[in-house]
Amino acid sequence: MNFFEYQDRARRNSGLLVGLLSLAVVLLIGITTLAAAALVAYSSGQPFNPVNVGTLLGWDTVGAIALTISAVIVLGSFYKLRQLSSGGRTVAEALGGRKINIAQHSDAEKRALNVVEEMAIASGTPVPEVYVLDDDAINAFAAGHEPQDAVIGLTRGCIERLSRDELQGVVAHEFSHIFNGDMRLNIRIVGLLHGILVIGLLGYWLLRGTYIGSSRDNRGRAALFGIGAGLMVIGYTGTFLGNLIKSAVSRQREYLADASAVQFTRSNAGIAGALKKIGGYSGGSQLSSAQAPEFSHMYFASGLRRSFTNLFATHPPLPSRINRLDPDWSGHFPSVESAVPGPQDERLAGIVGVAPLDSAASLERLSESVDNSIGNPGQDHIELGQRLLDSIPVDLRAAAHDPFAARAIVYLLLSHREASQRQKQHAILEKIAHPGVYRELQKLSPSIRAMPACARLPLLDLCIPALRALAPQQYQVFKRNLIKLLRSDGRVELWEWALYRVAMHGIEGAPDGHRVSHNRKALADATRFLLAALAHAGHEDYLAANRAYGAGLEALNYSKTPLPSRSDITLPRLDKAIAITRSMKPLQKPGLLKALAACMAHDGVLEAEEIELLRAVADSLDCPMPPLAVDMVTREALQRSTESIL
């Protein structure tokens, strides 16, 4: 099953989850109605028969009970989901996490951030915000709605007691939850369960109220006590059913995430070693936060003490998970009571002394990245991500974590390649940018110009968490300045738009909602426009671009239409085309990306700008494409590989 199939399954699982929890709500309504009818029958001295519920209560009362319970659950769920609307940072902060993307306080935190950045670069996803929980337990989690608002949470025990390989296995496990669409499902589970729990909380508050009123109002207090007790029973019955559903859904996804982590790292030793250390560590994986039970299904390992029954276990037993990863395991858990030293922990800045990046790849490699590697990075991509990080000068890597310097880096990445145009742009920035940002721009400019072209996108990805930390007013000024920078020479080059789109998607997520259209013709027009943009990106000559455009249309089985002119390719129209194509179903997206690849491959030359544009489109469609070190391939190599795409 590839990334697109996982995404399609995640959508169906979300519907199944809502259906199961809706069934739990219906059962609650039924239990409440029966309880009310039994109470009426008892108080009036009539025999109780479930068949006569309508007669005992009246159908208006039955309808009012159903409406009231449904309204309480919906409002409670909406309130909780509203609280979680800002993404994974809400979960991390509720658990007491501290963000370390901008400020790391120890070598262990630097190493943890480095591992997360490597995985993000290797998989083509925006670098997530990383939070450290001041808890000695060994645990982790991924939370958010989309990759753009995802966070990775790591406990202090996790970053200090695991080796680098083990930490990489844990991080790969959490990234698999990001790729497979589990995060949004997890957030919905929290919201829906909270809505059901509200009924029980209302009952609890009513019971407390019975001890506050006047002692002379015994009849009123008795009524409140009865209603409160009934609501508590109903609410916690619903929570019982909801937790059963949550646990059953969560356990199977943990096995899948373990398998995905092995696939990403090409090693079972790392993640299996982390699980073994959890079993042998006195602190285990149990979190001390009071909010830990609410998010229990999000963790790498069980964050709660195991109860007398496995019915509510959100994670499979440790031995079961370890045996799947390491069939030869002896069953012995190692003793882990101190931080783990060793040479692997000394590596804080990626692999040192590796071979230069390969500058060529066949179309077969590109096809694999379009189809099989999206959302499914392998060890070769991780190694490439490590080398890409190493190719970024040390001063730029440090600067990317600072909100002032990160803005300067993005301005420099989008600066014109011609010196005269670049000087004109920098003169504009001197007037409109923050003075501190402009000083960073002047200081970092030589390093940016000396950096290899293949490192532009990775460096931009490193800047995303710092840019997300900008205050709303700072961000609006920054975005406005970016647009002025792009338009300063009278036109927007496609490579400029590609970098701009990756930055905006990483910070904001989806393009403006009012542009989205589900009209089939609008979708076809947007697809044709993206093909035209890529055709012009790879060809200066109109006839050559037209032939490439035709190859892309043929890959989609679209009829041939005239190629839009280069002047028609504007930033607003590109953004609109992306907004429309985002509405495609997951299983339709690979066809578009393969057609774009066929368009690129038509002339037998793959340039770095074309790869950046393809990755920008894939990123905007929420299809994380691993990086490729591609400058050029021969026409013969492309022709030999074309059939694998078409």
Summarize the structure in words:
It is a single chain. The chain is mainly α. The protein is 63% helix and 3% strand. The protein contains 26 helices and four strands. It has helices at 3-44, 53-57, 59-83, 88-94, 107-123, 156-161, 164-179, 182-209, 218-265, 269-280, 318-325, 363-371, 379-390, 394-399, 403-413, 419-432, 435-450, 456-468, 472-486, 494-508, 520-538, 542-555, 571-581, 589-601, 608-620, 635-645; strands at residues 97-99, 129-133, 140-143, 151-155. Residues 114-326 form the Peptidase M48 domain. This is Zn-dependent protease with chaperone function. GO terms for molecular function: peptidase activity.
How much of the residues is beta strand, in percent?
under 5%
Q: How much helix is in the residues?
A: 55-70%
User: Biggest β-sheet: count, sense, barrel?
Assistant: 4 strands, mixed
Q: Numbering strands along the chain, what is their spatial order in the largest sheet?
A: 1-2-4-3
DSSP E strands, number: 4
Average predicted confidence as pLDDT: 77
Classification by helices and strands: mainly alpha
Number of domains: 4
Protein name: Zn-dependent protease with chaperone function
Organism: Microbulbifer flavimaris
GO molecular function: peptidase activity
InterPro entries: HtpX_protease, Peptidase_M48
